[in-house]
Amino acid sequence: MHCCPAATTGGRGPGIMRIMNALPDDDTVIADTRLWLERAVIGLNLCPFAKAVHQKGQVRFVVSQAHDPQALAEDLARELQHLAAVPSEQTDTTLLVHPRVLQDFPDYNDFLDVADALLDQLGLEGVLQVASFHPDYRFEGTGPDDVGNCSNRSPWPTLHLLREDSIERAVLAFPDAAEIYERNIETLESLGWEGWRKLHTDSRH
Questions:
Q1: Burial level of 129, CB count in 10 A (0-12/13-18/19+)?
Q2: Residue 124 DSSP label
Q3: Assigned domain for 5 exists
Q4: Which of 26, 43, 158, 175 has the largest count of CB atoms under 10 Å?
Q5: Number of domains in the chain
């Protein structure tokens, strides 16, 4: 999974996900995230690099217990160090899901500066990077109801930890990688909000 651009401007879109003040257990949070990964990210081919690492079991799912940004920063630092320490064959990428903190997208967006600072402090700049997914993700210059924002909308606030060398290999394998964003917008506009909501309907809930 190497397709998420940097976060931009905040704003709340149509609510299609679970109300965040009614938090489920961690197993459900991971199940929601896995379902989104399989049906949206892979199913709609929003990230053509995601399928292979998921099929190989190289995606690490972690639910943070943090209730404030400081605690989340500590969890993020620990997961960055873990990803840097293990071979890619074991874990190629990590989804750090944090349902209890940074539910508001503007606050989440601001936290990305903290994430970048952590990479520098840990000496991992150029080795790893942190990409962004959020239930209310909004690209700069778009309205809250723009379905194109769904390319980066996840069921729970999530920090996506990536290996720079994996990104480089993926880009070489997909020479049209620069066109992914535009293709995703076309896919989501064709799908529409009704189709996006149906995509997240699951008999578990």
A1: buried
A2: -
A3: no
A4: 158
A5: 1
User: Residue 105 in contact with residue 134, Cβ under 8 Å?
Assistant: yes
6 DSSP assignment:
P
**Per the domain annotation, does 7 fall within a domain?**
no
Q: Quick check: is 16 in a domain?
A: no
68-84 pLDDT, tens digit per residue, is 999 999 999 999 999 99
Amino acid at the residue 199 = L
Which two tokens mark 47? 């990230």
CB atoms within 10 A of CB 159: 26
Answer yes or no: is 10 within a domain. Answer: no
pLDDT digits (tens, 9 = 90+) for 30-62: 999 999 999 999 999 998 889 999 999 999 999
Domain of 167 in residue numbering reads as: 26-199
Q: For the chain, what is the largest distance between any 2 Cα atoms, rounded to a whole number of angstroms? A: 44
Q: Which amino acid is at 89?
A: E
How far, in Å, CA of 97 to CA of 140, rounded? 23
Q: Which two tokens stand for residue 106?
A: 């503007």
Alpha-carbon gap, residue 36 to 34, rounded angstroms: 5
Q: Is the dihedral of CA 75, 77, 79, 82 positive or negative?
A: negative
